[in-house]
Design brief:
0% strand
């Protein structure tokens, strides 16, 4: 469905622009929490405390692909004036940064031998952990936007 911007838009409290969404705070929280979690995962991986790291990285890869499909389907299925489309306009950059980073880093980690002695494996596991937590934070802020906008439009 092609959006027609010539017809008048109904009055809504939730804006189409990202002036009221918390995109900057979401990016900051995602980066800080991603760095902290990646550092913790790398330390656990270096000390050989993560025994089944391949299974974890593979599940992160599958999660990234599923989230990519869900975001694309919700973008295509939502109407031009929907709350979902409004929040997607706001958080598209954060979501796709987390999704693409998660998929690429997890694919990189899965395609290597994950030994604690390998510097490349340590970097791949750290990047995967960072992007996965960033993706989770981006999804969290997207859902917060959806609930806030839906609550404001129902009033």
């Amino acid at each position: 469905m092609i959006c027609s911007y010539e017809r008048p838009r109904p009055e809504r409290k939730c804006p189409d622009s990202c002036t009221e969404c918390m995109r900057g705070i979401g990016i900051l929280v995602g980066i800080i929490s991603g760095l902290l979690f990646a550092a913790a995962v790398v330390l656990l991986f270096l000390n050989s405390l993560l025994t089944e790291i391949f299974t974890g990285v593979l599940s992160v890869l599958i999660t990234g692909i599923v989230v990519l499909l869900v975001v694309l389907i919700s973008a295509l299925a939502s109407g031009c004036e929907s709350v979902t489309k409004s929040c997607l306009r706001c958080y598209t950059g954060s979501l796709f940064f987390g999704i693409i980073g998660t998929i690429l880093s997890a694919f990189l980690a899965v395609s290597t031998e994950l030994a604690a002695e390998s510097v490349f494996a340590i970097v791949a596991v750290g990047l995967t952990a960072f992007f996965f937590v960033y993706l989770i934070i981006a999804i969290l802020f997207f859902v917060l936007c959806l609930t806030k906008c839906r609550r404001e439009t129902d009033i």
